[in-house]
Amino acid sequence: MDAEARFRALYAQSYGPLHRWAQHRGITGADADDLVADVFTIAWRRFADIPADAAVAWLFGVARNVARNRGRAERRRAALHLMAPRDASTPPPDEPSDTRVLRAALDALRSDDREVLRLVAWDGVELADLPVALGCSPGAARVRLHRARQRFAAAVTRAEHATGSGRDLQEVPDVR
What we know:
mainly alpha
């Protein structure tokens, strides 16, 4: 099978999971389409570097890097917009309390912990493929997942305690 046919097969296999990956991180619509397109552009240019046994996991790693680059660019743009006058905005409606606790706990984690938990829980990346998606050794991937799970459990406990004590969930201390 030639390179173009192999690339088409990889595209067909991984487009859906990559698009869901983007949506799980709040990237929707045209932004999600653009992110996935950028991932496949990089994959085509670096097609020889894609490991045959973990191609989708490798693409998740590329997606993480693309999303991080976009996030940095957006933060730079936002910093420039701080100098412009802002319009008053309406706050979003309240979420159900269970969802609020989980969201507060997840938001209290460092971005690397959130990412490893999302890859495994939301995107279905297997433990064997996690090192490829994270760009680290298998041992480091297991340790990162274990520590992220521990930090998340502790953050859930803190968020539940903050909810039970009547404190605002914004006051939940983070572990970044």
